[in-house]
Amino acid sequence: VTTLPDTSPWKSVHAPRPLGLSPRQRDVLILLVMVALVFTVTSRMDLFERFARFSEAHDAWQLDELIWLPILFAVAGLIFAWRQSRALIRELMGRKEAEERVRAMALHDPLTGLANRRKLQEALSLAVPARKERSEVTVLLAIDLDRFKPINDSHGHGVGDRLLKEVADRLTAVAREGELVARMGGDEFALLLPVAESADAATRPARRIIQALEAPFRIDNIVCQIGASIGIACASEANFDPEALIQRADVALYRSKSEGRGQFRFFEEEMDGHIRRRALLEQQFSQALAQGAIRPHYQPLVELATGRLKGFEILARWTHAEEGVISPEVFIPIAEDTGLIGELSLKLLREACVEAAGWDPPLTLSVNVSPVQLRDSRLPERFMQVMTETGFDPRRLEVEITENTLVADFPGAKRILTALKSHGVQIALDDFGTGYSSLHHLRELPFDKLKIDRSFILSMEESEESRKIVGAIIGLGHSLGLTTLAEGIETAARARELVDLGCDMGQGYYYGRPAADADAFRDGGETSVQGAA
Ligand code: C2E
Ligand code: MG
Ligand code: MG
Fold first, then answer.
1. C-alpha to C-alpha distance for 103 and 369, rounded to whole angstroms
2. What are 162-216's pLDDT values in tens digits?
3. pLDDT category, 313, cuts 50, 70, 90?
4. Nearest CA residue ID for atom 46, ligand 1
C-alpha cells in the first residue's frame, strides 16, 4: 500500500499558539510562577518564624507533630495528581490518534491507501495559495484504465483489487515530490500537480503513466495487459473551482477514450458542448424509448453471386424532435450506460418480428446484441418469449455479436450463445478483424457466420493489404465451415471483386441503405435490391 508522504508545504496550516508555548510548557510555567508566589508571600510575612513562635508558646498542643499531617497529605496529593495527569495524557494521546486515524480514513482510499476524491478536492483548494509566480498553474490529470473491466469480470474481484493496488504503486512511482496521486473510484485515478510552470508540465507524467500502465502486470499466474487513457485540465486563475477542474479533466478524458485508448488529451473549450449534448440525450433517452421514437430500420443482406435478398439486419434509429435522426453509435452507449439496452433490444426485436412474421419467402432478421446484454443469463428466454408471442420462427433469427463482447466474459457468452443456438437461432460474429478475439474463440463458439468489418472492404480499393486480409478472412471462414459476409459494399466493382474472392454474402449501400420500410426492398418475394454481381 502506498501513500504519498504528507510533505507538501501547503498542507498543514495550524492556528497560532499564545506566546508560542506548547500546553506542557505553559503548565510548567504556571507551576513555577505559583511556587515563586508562595515563596515570596511566606518569606515576606515571616510565616515560618511566626509558626515556630506560636508552637513554642503552646508546647502542650504538639503542633510540630501535627504539621507532618498536611505535609503527608501534600505528598500523597502530589503523587495522586501526577498519576492522574499521566492517565489523562494517555487518554488524550489515544483520542488524538483515533481522530487522526478517522481523518486519514475519511481522506484515503481503503484499498490502495491513495488519497481519495475528498483529499484531492482539499489539496486543490490549497493549491492556489501555494503558487508563488503569476505564471504558475495547477494541473490535474484524470486517468482511466483501459480494459480493466474484462479482467475484473473474468478473473474475479480478488484479482481486480490486486491489480488496482499495483496500478497505485506504479502511479506513485511516477509522481514527484509535492504531487498527489488519488483514486477517484473504480478504475479511475488522478494526479495533481499543484504548482506547475505551465500546462506542458503535464506531458511528462502523462507519457510516463501511459508507458508504466501498458507494461503487463502479473498477478499469481495471470498476466494482465491493461493500459490508460488520460485527460488533462489546467487552472491558471487565482480562484478556480476545484470541482470544475475535475470535471474538465473528465471531459478531456472522455474524449481521449473515444478517440482510441492509450492516449492523453488536453481539455479544450469546444469539448464542453459535446458533453452537454450527451448529457441532454441521456436525460431524454428513456422517454424516447417509451414513446416509440426509437424504431428498427432494415438493411438488406444479399447472396453475392446472385444478388438475391436473403434477409435484413435490424439497425436502430432514434428520430429526435430537434436533432432529426440520431445514429445508434451515439445512443447505444447511452442505452448501455443507463441500463436500458435490454429493454431497447427486446422492443426493436418485437416490432421487427411482428412485421416479418408473415413474409413470404421467410427472410431472416439479424439483430445486434451488445456486450452488456450478454451478462444477462436470462437473455435466451427473453428472446424466445418474443418469438412465441409474435409467431416468428427462431430459425429465421440471427444474433450478431462483436469480438470485444467475447473478451469481456467468454464462459458467460458461450452459455448464452449455446442456449440460443439450441433453439435454432443463428450466430454471427460481427465486425470481424477489429476486435481482440482469437482463433480459439472462433473454434470454441457455435458461430454460423463471419461478418468482415466494413473498414477492410472500404479500403480495398487503395490498399492491397486490405484486399489480402479480406481474402485471408474468407479462406479462414470457409475452412471453419462458416458463411462469410462482407459489410460496407458501396459499388458494383467491389461486389464483383468479393465474388471472385469467394465471399458468400454482402451488405452495403450498393444494395441498400438502412430504411424504415423493409417492403421497399421486397418485391412480392423477389428481391428488388440491385442486381447480381
Ligand atoms: P454494425 O452492426 O456493424 O452495422 C453495420 C453498420 O454499417 C450500420 O451503421 C450501417 O448503416 C453501416 N453500413 C452499412 N452499409 C454500409 C456501407 O456501404 N458503407 C458504410 N460506410 N457504412 C455502411 P449504423 O446503423 O450506424 O450502426 C452502427 C452500429 O451500431 C452497428 O454496427 C451496431 O454495432 C450498432 N447498432 C445498431 N443498432 C443496434 C441495436 O439495435 N442494438 C445494438 N446493440 N447495437 C446496434
Ligand atoms: Mg451488426
Ligand atoms: Mg458490423
1. 47
2. 999 999 999 999 999 999 999 998 999 999 999 888 888 899 999 999 999 999 9
3. very high
4. 368
Q: According to the 3-state scheme, what is the secondary structure of 349-390?
A: HHHHHHHHCCCCCCCEEEEECCCCHHHCCCHHHHHHHHHHHH
Q: Give, in degrees to the nearest 5, the angle at Cα 49 between 44 and 50.
A: 90
> Using an 8 Å Cβ cutoff, are 303 and 505 in contact?
yes
| pTM of the complete model | 0.63
Closest CA to 124 of 250, 240, 253: 240
Residue 294 · residue 317 · CB < 8 Å = yes
Q: What are φ and ψ of residue 427, in 5° steps?
A: -120, 130
Residue 430 alpha carbon to ligand 1 centre in Å: 10
Residue whose CA lies nearest to ligand 1 atom number 42 = 368
* Ligand 1 probe mutation, 368, 427, 452, most atoms within 8 A of CB: 368
How many other C-beta atoms can be found within 10 angstroms of the C-beta atom of residue 178?
15
**Helix, strand, or coil (residue 224):** strand
- The residue whose grid cell reads 489515544 is 94
CA angle 224, 228, 230 (to 5 degrees): 170
**Torsion over CA of 373, 374, 378 and 381, rounded to 10 degrees?**
90
Confidence check: pLDDT of 4 > 80:
no
Residue with cell 498519576: 83
> Using CA atoms in the order 19, 23, 24, 25, what is the torsion angle rounded to 10 degrees?
0
Residue 9 is predicted with a pLDDT of 33
**246: three-class secondary structure by DSSP:** helix
- Best CA proximity match to 127, nearest among 208, 27, 240, 216: 240
The bound ligand whose nearest atom lies closest to the alpha carbon of 348 is 1
CA distances from 6 to 178, 181, 190, 364 (A): 8, 12, 17, 65
Angle between helices 203-214 and 157-174 (to 10 degrees): 140
Hey, which residues does 294 pair with through a beta bridge?
318
Per the rule left: phi > 0, alpha: psi between -120 and 50, beta: everything else, 185 is left
* Nearest ligand, CA 405: 1
Q: Give, as one character, the DSSP assignment of residue 115.
A: B
Is there a contact between 155 and 40 (Cβ–Cβ < 8 Å)?
no
Q: How far is the CA of 313 from the centre of ligand 2 (A)?
A: 7
